[in-house]
Amino acid sequence: MRALLLLGLVGFAAQLVDGSLGMAYGVTSTTLLLAIGTNPAAASATVHLAEIGTTLASGFSHWRFGNVDWKVVGKIGVPGAIGAFAGATFLSSLSTEVAAPVMSLILLTLGVYILIRFTAFGLPRGNLGKPLRKRFLTPLGLFAGFVDSTGGGGWGPVGTPAILASGRLAPRKVIGSIDASEFLVAIAASVGFFVGLGSENIDFSWVAVLLIGGVIAAPIAAWLVRHIPPRILGSAVGGLIVLTNVRTLLRSDWIDAPGGVQTVAYLTIAVIWAAAIAYSVREYRKHKAQESVEAYEEELRKQEPTTSA
After folding, report:
1. Is the pLDDT higher at 146 or at 15?
2. Most confidently modeled range among 145-154, 221-230, 280-289
């Protein structure tokens, strides 16, 4: 019962992050499932089955708050589903000994990317209003869907920053559209895992608990996306993913690091993680202060003709 309650909290927290940041439900949930010794393919299958419900709830919630661009959903979601099915069948064919460190390496790479991307650069906002083309979204969807299945997460970490970097869509609509299109990816990945694994390796009680936690968090996250600082949240989540997957890799047969080396690695990552969060907080406050000054100056400019008259 305690394990199920913990999984429910994981599902809630992961969806809260995913719905407000546009990424990290699968990466966070799969990372924690791997940390407790779950078979990699079964962990990814469990998370993707739960995501069928959480992404449906999240997409609906984002739609209600006006955060979804359905043209983008169609252009990236279908190729994403194709890539996800291919990735699921590929992961199912790997042995556990090979799959566990491979998946942790993928998750670690995504975690480092999230940490650096949000800490150093925040969210770009140029080129708003320009259309997003199929020639950009189709290969992005194929790649993100494949990574999502093989890594147990990656649809958001790959898709969200790529579209944000284009600067052509408002951040809240990027997040809402990625969350809505992930419904197609979750279905395709789940079908792929059933083809490759069958159902005997999947604990459906875990799926249900993750799903319940995620569904409860979905509407809250859709509302928070307009208020929470994504830069700070991205730094926090990225550091957590890096720390957890470094732990998995250091304990794997690939490395099998001594205890002292592990301790030094964890402390180093913790210091970098704390510094990244502190830097993101400082930059966020600086940006907000600059916005306030610019708004005040704009208000003064608007009042000048009235004053002179």
Report:
1. 146
2. 280-289
- State pTM to two decimals: 0.63
User: What are 8's two structure tokens?
Assistant: 């429910």
Cβ neighbours for 200, distance < 8 A, ≥ 6 positions apart: none
Percent of the chain past pLDDT 70, that is, above it, reads 74
Q: Give burial (CB, 10 Å; 0-12/13-18/19+) of 158.
A: buried
Q: How far apart are CA 164 and CA 173, in angstroms?
A: 10
Task: Please give the angle made by the CA atoms of 176, 181 and 185, to the nearest 5 degrees.
Answer: 140
What CA–CA distances, in Å, run from 137 to 77, 78, 185, 204, 225?
9, 10, 14, 33, 23
What contacts 111, CB < 8 A, 6 or more positions away?
27, 238, 239, 240, 241, 242, 245
CA nearest to 118, candidates 51, 20, 32: 20
Q: In Å, how far are 124, 159, 179, 291 from 165, measured between CA atoms?
A: 6, 10, 17, 21
**Torsion, Cα of 82, 75, 128, 17 (10° steps):** -40
Integer angstrom CA distances of residue 121 from 100, 116, 165, 278: 31, 8, 10, 14
Task: List, for residues 166-207, the tens digit of each pLDDT value.
Answer: 767 776 788 788 888 888 988 888 888 777 766 666 667 777
Query: What is the C-alpha end-to-end distance of the chain, expressed in Å?
Result: 73
Tokens 């052509």, residue?
168
Computed on alpha carbons and rounded to an integer, the radius of gyration of the chain in Å comes to 20
d(C-alpha 145, C-alpha 78), whole Å: 10
Q: How far apart are CA 156 and CA 175, in angstroms?
A: 8
CB-based contacts of 167, cutoff 8 Å, min separation 6: 124, 125, 126, 127, 128
Q: How far is CA 235 from CA 34, 111, 286, in A?
A: 22, 9, 17
